[in-house]
Every structure is written in structure tokens, then in C-alpha cells.
Design a protein that fits this description.
- About 35% of the residues lie in helices and about 30% in strands.
- By secondary structure, it is of the alpha/beta class.
- The strands form 2 sheets. Strands 6, 7, 8, 9, 10 and 11 form a 6-stranded mixed beta sheet that branches. It has a 5-stranded mixed beta sheet with strand order 3-2-1-4-5, sandwiched between helices.
- It contains 5 helices and 11 strands.
- β7 and β8 form a beta hairpin.
Length: about 230
Amino acid sequence: MKLLAIDTSTEACSAALAIDDAVTHTRFELAPQRHAELILPMVDQLLREAGGLRVDELDGLAFGQGPGTFTGVRIAAGIIQGIAFGAELPIVPVSSLAALAQGLFSERGQAQVLAAIDARIGEIYWGAYQVDERGILMAVQAQCVGKPDTVPVPVAGRWFGAGTGWDSYGPILRERLGGDRLLGIEPRRYPHAREVAVLGIEAFKAGHGVVQAEYALPAYLRDKVVN
């Protein structure tokens, strides 16, 4: 399968290309407020690196649908819809929290991850993920947005924390989890299109969550706009 993935849901902007179910080319840059400027050139670079692959030669698309900054998730949704409409390609929307968690397993082997993205105004976007037999981090509870001292935590197990929510509210989240159940944290980790591609491929294989362009929508988790 040939799949293009993008993510602009946080301060990071990234794109990834998977060929034969393996991610072969990536771009990643921490560039707040520059996502609209960077993402399409990133996509063009990846396609050129893959031997001049054309968009209409792809089998599908994936994008980080949020949660994250309102502007960022809108950019990703708009870009992926435009590509999909032009090439008549199906899309898998991928949770940016899930992609964040998947990166911890892919790079560090962490099998239970509490992903937290700073949502501003004293809140975080929050999700708990545990690896399955395929090596895919699956949600063990619904992702949500809330105050760091009120987010739901798993009742058992030892967990690794990742994301900017841990940078902003690490002590509160550590206390919320309780005891010695926190294995460590990586507070400056961001969602990456590489993991959006990995999760997108699995979704295509399972036939789960695949939509046409008009249904590839952002997941805000809340209505109040904060960027």
C-alpha cells in the first residue's frame, strides 16, 4: 500500500510517505504558525524522493485530525481533503493523541502511554493507550479534554507520560496518577506523521475508519477556539 500522511495538530508540522506498508520518507519541523506554509512543500519533497510518485498513484491518505490547535487541525483537514478530492482517494482520520502515544512505542518500546497535549486555558487533551498484539497502541478509555487534576486515569498498571501537557502540568498529572505508577515522561514529544501513517495503514487493513473526503473532519473535543 502507498499512503501519504500529514499532521499539523500541534507546534510540529510533519509529513510521511509509506510504500509497501513501510514508512520510507518523512519530514518533521517544529514551526509554530508556519504549518500552512510548510506542509505542501513537505508533501512535494516526499513524492519527489519516492521517484516522482504522483498523488494519483497513492492508495490512500491519513491525517492527524486532532485534538490540537484549532488552526492546526483545520489546516490538516483542509489539505488532505483537497488532495483527496483531486485524486479521488480515501482517507483515514487518525487521533493525534494516538499518534503521539504510538511514537513512544515505536521509538522506546513503551507499551502503556498517557498522552497529554496542552489545550491552553488550564486544560489538556488526554488519552490512555496500551499496545496490542499487532504493536498498535489502542485507546483504553475515550480521549477527552479537561483540567489536569480531573482527567480520568487507568485504575491499574504503570504508565509512561508523553506530550506538552506533561510539560505544563507534570506534577499535577503525576499526583493524579498516584504512587509509583509513572515510569517516566517525555514532555517535549509531539505527534508525528510517521505514526499517523502507521495507524492509517492498520485502519485501511482492517477496513475501519476509512472515509471519503467530505467526511474527513477535525476532532476538536471542545468548541471554544484557543490556538
